[in-house]
Amino acid sequence: MQSIRSGWWSGLVGWWQSASDAGVWGTYGSAESRGRNKGLSTQEMLLLTVNGLFTGGNALSGTFVNVYLWKTAQKLTTIGWFALFSHLSMALTFWIAGKWVKERNKMMALRAGVAVSAAFYLAVLGLGPMAADWILPLGVMQGLSAGLFWLAFNVVYFEVTGPATRDRFNGIAGLTGAFFGMTAPWLSGWLIARMGDGAGYRIVFGLSLAVFVAGVLCSLMLRKRERDDDEPYRWLSEFRRLRESGNPWRLVVPALAAQGVREGVFAFAIGLLVYIATSSELNLGQYSVLTSAVAFAAFAAAGRWMKPSRRSGGMLFAAVTLVAMIVPFFWGIDYAKLLWFGIVSAAVYPLYIVPMTSAAFDLIGRNEQSSRRKVELIVLREIALNVGRLAGTAVFLLVVAREPGPRAVNWMLLGVGSSPLLAWWFMRSWLKVSARLPGRRTANGER
Questions:
Q1: For residue 321, what pLDDT is reported?
Q2: Is 90 a residue whose pLDDT tops 90?
């Protein structure tokens, strides 16, 4: 299962930002990154390589892990529990590993995340058809790997890049993510269709394992990063600050949770529905290619159209469209409807997710004091997202366990899929404020 941070869209968000912003973190960064106007350093290129390998490994097998579990268990609840354990493990990993990343060795956390991903696919390979009986440990492993990697990556990214290099860094990361998102699922589907279920899945999972091992080896060349302050990790400080009147996180946190509600279900449900409708891994791979290609073009178009004054309106339009595209499922779910849903959703998704992502990161880097609390704020952001994902997945499990019929599932998809409207409602005030922050500009240089 591809999480919010390891899917192809995550890279595209960075690519869009490179065309429209001076950097999602505002003007603050580490001392080594400020004032540097040259090309990417060796450490930045190595970080990009590790990110590409992690993204590529997940792109190869992310969607097909759910299909594999479905084929061995034939139960929607199995997929739901797998997602639930993954989201819960990810949230706890972000919170607990925050101390390790801030006070100890963030590079070891990043390497551990890649290594646990390799161990996950090694476990799936070893368990084979029995993988569905080990949902809890497999889900925990996947959440652990994502939590460790993305917490460390976000902090290191903040430190090694500055306003002068983030555009180029985000551009390369986005194009790499888009490339893997368009090619890797198709390659996996083709291999499974060509080699058959048994050998095909073993080859695909084995390729992912090899990619993650390469990622671990490459990460060894990243140098250890020293702490940039002497402040200890404060476990609950940012959660306590939510009680302060006027704290913008009081609106951003519920908005992030609402964003997570849809992601928690749609990240695995749509791909699984495509497979159930077609009974073909190749068709699922082709579906990923088409929707990823549309998304790539949509992010490029959004980069030209979007400017600060259009954020709220664009996000509302996208949220309404995302909800409307679920309605046709009430007249039956088939491949044609799913493809139409995927194409239209991919076309409008940039208008929804880019303001969400940029505005939240702007809040982390809005001043030097906030920047010093970057680890705690990143943890707060990720826990809010995962609380939403847990809530959405819990709703999915309740529905499919009690009444797994098409009508109940459609109402569940509509209810969960309406959460972008709630995200916009909470985020709309901060979107206006963040558009006026220093360093925010459009692709045309407008502020």
A1: 96
A2: yes
E strands, 2-45, are none
Please, what's the b/e burial string for 393-422 (b: 16 or more CB within 10 A of its CB; e: otherwise)? bbbbbebbeeeeeeeebbebbeebbbbbeb
Helix/strand/coil percent split, the chain, to 5:
80, 0, 20
pLDDT of residue 395: 95
Tokens encoding 280: 């073909």
17-53 tens-digit pLDDT: 444 443 333 444 444 444 444 556 787 788 888 888 8
pLDDT digits 0-9 by tens, 316-335: 999 999 999 999 999 988 99
Distance CA 360, CA 195 (A): 44
The CA distance from 146 to 239, in Å, is: 22
Give the range of the structural domain holding residue 412, as residue numbers without chain letter. Answer: 8-32+39-226+235-434
Q: Confirm whether 133 is domain-assigned.
A: yes
Closest CA to 62 of 114, 8, 113, 129: 8
Which H or E element spans position 164? Answer: none
Q: Quote the CA–CA distance of 340 and 338 in Å, as a whole number.
A: 5
DSSP letter for 262, please. Answer: H
Answer yes or no: is 136 within a domain.
yes
From 258, 283, 254, 256, select the one nearest 271 (Cα to Cα): 283
Tell me the one-letter amino acid at 34: R
pTM of the model as a whole:
0.84
Nearest Cα neighbor of 385 from 260, 273, 285, 232 is: 260
| CATH number for 159 | 1.20.1250.20
- Torsion, Cα 430 436 438 440, to 10 degrees, reads 90
> How many domains does the chain divide into?
1
Backbone angles phi, psi at 104, to 5 degrees: -115, -110
What burial class does residue 293 get, using C-beta atoms within 10 Å of its C-beta: 0-12 exposed, 13-18 middle, 19+ buried? middle
- CA-wise closest residue to 443 among 6, 15, 21, 3: 21
CA distance 149 to 100: 12
Residue 409 CA, chain-centre distance (Å), reads 24
